[in-house]
Amino acid sequence: MTADADGWERPIPHFSLDPFAGCQTVNGLASDLVRSALHKHVRMGRVEQSVRAAMELARTDEAHEHMLWQRLRVIAAEDIGLGTPEAIAVVAALHGSAELFGHATYERLEMAAQAAGYLATVPKDPTVGEIMQVVLHEDRVVDIPAEAVDIHTERGQVEGRTMYDWFTTGTAVHPEVAGRDRTWHHRLDDLYFELDPPADGQR
Q1: Which is the most buried residue in 90, 115, 140, 184, by most CB within 10 A?
Q2: 8 A C-beta contact, residue 49 and residue 81
Q3: Do residues 161 and 67 share a domain?
Q4: Are residues 62 and 31 in the same domain?
Q5: 48 and 73 share a domain?
Q6: Quick one: residue 39, left, alpha or beta (phi over 0 = left, psi -120 to 50 = alpha)?
Q7: Domain housing 17
Q8: Residue 6 pLDDT more than 50?
Q9: What's the rounded mean pLDDT across residues 128-133?
Q10: Are residues 32 and 79 in the same domain?
Q11: Do 171 and 98 share a structural domain?
């Protein structure tokens, strides 16, 4: 922590630790404010403003462009989330395509513009990111459910769990696709009962 951050006790890093604090973009705007504006414009679905922010960062220099793509990926995970789960893959593909062209070329800028505009447009569900923040701030520890104590673990083997126990409890999924073909599931149920039955010998 730098001298400017002495005594800083708030739950966010001090601006003196931000490499873009004090920097300016190609048009003389504060770099950290443009980065913040990008995030807020995308969150609120403001397509043109999202593209403007992306262009401001992408045209400044390679360091700002790299930061832009980092931020776009964070937005895809944090804010878009399960609303459009493929968003992170779309942004990654556009980033990869951008790298085929030179810095600040039209084609390279087009990829960044498409990524920012796309993220602004798509449905958003930040629930998982919100859960993560609560978990981190409250230091919540994962529960170990009964079905986790299976034959793949030391405790499960010590307690006599079998492959059949694992198959009947540890492979259940939810939500499961309605009406899926369960033919192979039933066949495996029979196979595991023969190969490694439960201790009581009962289904």
Answers
A1: 115
A2: no
A3: no
A4: yes
A5: yes
A6: alpha
A7: 3-129
A8: yes
A9: 97
A10: yes
A11: no
- What is the amino acid identity at position 192? Y
Q: Total domain count for the chain?
A: 2
Residue 139 lies in a domain: no
Chain segment 171-181, per-residue pLDDT in tens: 999 999 999 99
Same-domain pairing of 67 and 164: no
Q: How far lies 137's CA from each of 51, 99, 126, 141, in Å? A: 33, 37, 17, 11
> 2: pLDDT confidence band, cut at 50, 70 and 90?
very low
What pLDDT, on a 0 to 100 scale, did the predictor assign at position 1? 40
Q: Are 42 and 71 in contact (CB under 8 A)?
A: no
Of the candidates 28, 7, 34, 3, the residue with the CA atom closest to the CA atom of residue 16:
3
Q: Does one domain contain both 117 and 172?
A: no
- Per DSSP, the residues of the chain read --GGGTT--SSS--GGG-TTTT-B-TTS-BHHHHHHHHHHHHHTT-HHHHHHHHHHHHTT-HHHHHHHHHHHHHHIIIIIBTTSTTHHHHHHHHHHHHTTS-TT-HHHHHHHHHHHHHHHHS--B-HHHHHHHHHHHHT------GGGSSTTSHHHHHTT--HHHIIIIIT--SSPPTT---HHHHHHHHHHHHHS--TT---
